[in-house]
Amino acid sequence: MIENAIKIRFIYFLYRLALILAAPPLILYFVLRIRRDHRYAAHFRERLGTIPFPTQPTAAGTIWLHAVSVGEVISSIALLRTLRETFPTAPLFVSVGTIAGRAIAGEKLAALTNGIFYVPLDYVGCIRRVLRKLKPSLVVVMETEIWPNLYRETRRCGARLAIVNGRISDRAFPRYQRFRFITSAALSQPHEIFVQTPQDRARYLDLGAPAARLHAEGNLKYDFDPSEGEIAPEIRRYIDDLQPSRIWIAASTMPPREDTDPDEDDIVVAAIQQLAATHPRLLTILVPRRPERFAGATEKLERAGVPFLRRSQIGLAPAPALPSVLLLDSMGELSRLFSLADVVFMGGTFPQRGGHNILEPAYFGKPIVAGPHMENFPAIAEEFTRAGAMVRVAGPRDLAPAIARLLDDDAERTVIGERARQLAIAKRGVTRHIASRLAELYRDAIPRSPTRPLLAPFAALWEYETRRRRERALASQRKLEQPVISIGNISMGGSGKTPFTDWLATRLKDRGLQPAILTRGYRRRSPEPYVVLHAGTETPAELTGDEPQTYLKHGSAHLGIGADRYEAGRLLSKIYPSDVMLLDDGFQHWRLARDIDIVLIDGLDPFGGGAVFPQGRLREPLSSLARASAFLITRAGPGVRIETIERELRRWNPHAPIFTSRVKPHGWIRLGDNQIFEDPPFQSAGAFCGLANPNTFWRTLDEAGIETPFRWSFGDHHRYHPPELRKLAVRTRRRGAEVLLTTQKDVPNLPVNILELVAPTPVFALEITIEVDRADELLEWIYSGFLCVKK
Questions:
Q1: What predicted TM-score, i.e. pTM, was given to this entire model?
Q2: What 3-state class would DSSP assign to 300?
Q3: In this prediction, what percent of the chain has a pLDDT beyond 70?
Q4: Which of helix, strand or coil describes residue 540?
């Protein structure tokens, strides 16, 4: 295993070195291409970064589907629809590799996805940039693309990787074999590989894919439903006015690949001229495969003297008399037109292009004519040919006679079309099966940020220093007379410690105990090293800091504030006797002994990127979770994959009980008169906050249905200054919001004349509470197991 890992790392080093050496000519190529054709400028800019990525962590992990070509985009529609039904709250993004693919994706996938963008170049920096933005739980790569850096970086960021509808054509297979030392390393990365046929499975095996991860499931194209959508009204009217006796479609015609190959537009034009003599009421719909071929097809038709009209000119130019041609110079409309055809010729089968998908016309029961080259779909072509469900012709001269025979023979046309339809329908169901397997991968993933290797020495230094400080603190650890319950977390940033500490203090108070809270009092301005306050005392935030103000307002617990929580607790006990001490943010405060360590795990971002600071946001390695007495998964709202988080926790701590909680609005406080509303008395608000994790505030507002024309986050514990608040008020009025809205935690950090500064804009603060699942069980566990207090 170690030798294999070293081999893979060396192969990736060589691959990346080759990419670095290839960078200058690639950049020059893109620059020249942009200068030649303005259409590529937008392509290049979007590839570099104008991507609609999510701006905040989401409860459900992101799914990223990588579909490069038009065919892959179309193949993915049914799969995306199934994934959307299975995970309705999961952000779903699609990357494409061509302008035509981008156009089709924009038309057919816009309603299913959260964003569509061009594929990043397979450079580590480009891939990591996208992964940091998306934070995917599942990456799905369609069909034949092998992207070594994408595969490796996906695995390293904790996402699950799957190749779906995989295939390797006869033409591509020898080329891949020459680079087996790279493909074997790349294909060792995916968690699952779903290929179309047993032949494809054998080829993937030969290229180095692990046999246990390879599954010959079938072709997703069988589940594509081209009947969705309607034919454009202008095309429908055009054909109704012409009233052709027969219609044949030359679909996805292609240029030569080799010098000996024919151009299919020339073949089709010649066939049109032959058919015109015997079929005077015939309409031909010519569909070049790529937009750049529209102009060339127009010139060929004009040169041959064939009457035609471009689809873009319908309604602008008179319709030519039959027999004539409708040149479809648009994208995304072909599949809808198959229902009108009497016969379909599938392009890409005379030149050595490997053919295109014949299943779309097959669904409509149309007889299909194809040339000798169907290498891209060998299994489908063989099955349809063997069953008499399509007509194969040997060369260009045979096309016109084959089309004429089918146009004239209604019985043969019907029989062949029905056989094609039955074969297409019989193969359905692949999508559901693969989607269920992908769902298992998705649920099993815990995303983390891609690591930055240059920061690894600093992360190692942080981990060493943390371990050293812990050893020193434990050597001089002291214990209070009262039981101590530590409430903390393992990652930097907010995880809901303050709301839970306040909730627990209130519940203990309700059970007849007098709790006290020991807190640091971050950013307080008092010169006193320790501050001790009776429950419910009113005192300025300068003395306590902002978070203790929440505890004092609810009045459930006495308060001891100081950097040394032992001394603060000892002083507090002398003045205000307490039954139990709650150590706020205490998981890393080792100088004070505790009886219970409750560790909070943020359901939206559970493990701080999976790495110790500065590579991630962990304060300690995940192995320190073994010290926890219990876990509380906070913000466990819809879409949070509790089972996945629990499984990771059990990996480090098999015995500690796991509880869950969620944030709920408790009241909307109007500053000035401090009136509290159960429901928000406004519809829209300019929202701002100074929280370690502002996304929790934004999510609460989204769930409450509050429109926020703008959102502004400041640093944690931010003290607001008059110029900042005036700007916020101006922006609120300009965006048409009714009020300024912040959090209850931020209120102590606002100036006392806040209402004068932002007048006439009202200011509200959201007060939150938490709802703990199995709350009685948690309290009983605290009582019976540790506090030994008789109820």
A1: 0.74
A2: helix
A3: 91
A4: coil
